[in-house]
Amino acid sequence: MPLAVLATAVLTAAASLAGLVRPAAVQALSRAWSRLLLRLFRVAVRTQGQEQIPAGPAVYAANHSSSLDILVVLAHLPVDVRIIYKKSLSLVPLLGWSIAVGGHIPIDRSNPFRARRSLQKAAERIRAGTSVLVFPEGTRSPDGAVGHFKRGSFSLALEAGVPVVPLSLVGVKTLVPRGLASLRSGEITLRVHPAIPVSGRSRDDAEALAEEARLVVAAGCEREAGA
User: Fold this and answer.
1) What are residue 192's DSSP bridge partners?
2) 161 and 225 in contact (C-beta within 8 Å)?
3) Confidence of residue 19 (pLDDT cuts 50, 70, 90)
4) pLDDT tens per residue across span 57-71
5) What is the pLDDT of residue 140?
6) Which listed residue, of 3, 45, 50, 176, carries a Cα 20 to 30 Å from 189's Cα?
7) In Å, what is the CA distance from 19 to each residue of 25, 30, 91?
């Protein structure tokens, strides 16, 4: 764990500096950081369904049960994605700065007007070609079960007119049953499912789209458990 902390500090500092000159470099450093940490943690990742990845921008929606989730996706999803994050995180030294300069997408939830404006700007970024990664449960699952998907991320996909790609992260909770302090070595599966198109749907369909994606993600996790 001390090596992981050191690696995070060094690469985050490098990303913060690199982002001021060349924001695209932050993505390469983020991928390198994620791969390094997973190796230090002795966590192997098996990726399935890469052929399902659509051409062009999309909203990638994954289940969430641990801090490992973002490392797995950044390291092994062969897509240049940006994370949607709370704007206040930009103020966190090093980590927040690297996120801010790396072109990730902030959402200001300090009031409804600013939140709506943030979502509009995010939709513009996506329409312009930026794929995003979201964890629609909004919080980590305490037992690994896939919880309710909030509609916000799916409203964003509908507004931007891009497909939703469900991602199943399988086996994470087995390796971190009680957080990173309980981390054990093993294998995680990142399963990419077929994209869900949004053409012909309206913004009123966000809740139904969220549930459709949740069922796909949950089925992907259950299939592994029953194998």
Assistant:
1) 167
2) no
3) very low
4) 999 999 998 888 988
5) 85
6) 3
7) 7, 11, 15
Are the CB atoms for 189 and 170 separated by under 8 Å?
A: yes
What CATH number is given to the structural domain containing 189? 3.40.1130.10
Quote the number of domains for the chain.
Answer: 1
CB 83 within 8 A of CB 96: no
pTM: 0.84
Coil vs helix vs strand at 60: strand
pLDDT band for position 144 (50/70/90)? confident
* pLDDT tens per residue, range 191-209: 999 999 999 999 899 999 9
Domain that holds residue 174: 2-225
CA-to-CA dists, residue 159 to 52, 76, 202, angstroms? 22, 28, 8
More confident residue, 90 or 212: 212
The closest of 129, 137, 170 to 153, measured between CA atoms, is 137
Token pair recorded at residue 6: 């050191």
CA separation, residue 69 to residues 66, 78, 141, 161, 220 (Å):
6, 15, 11, 26, 15
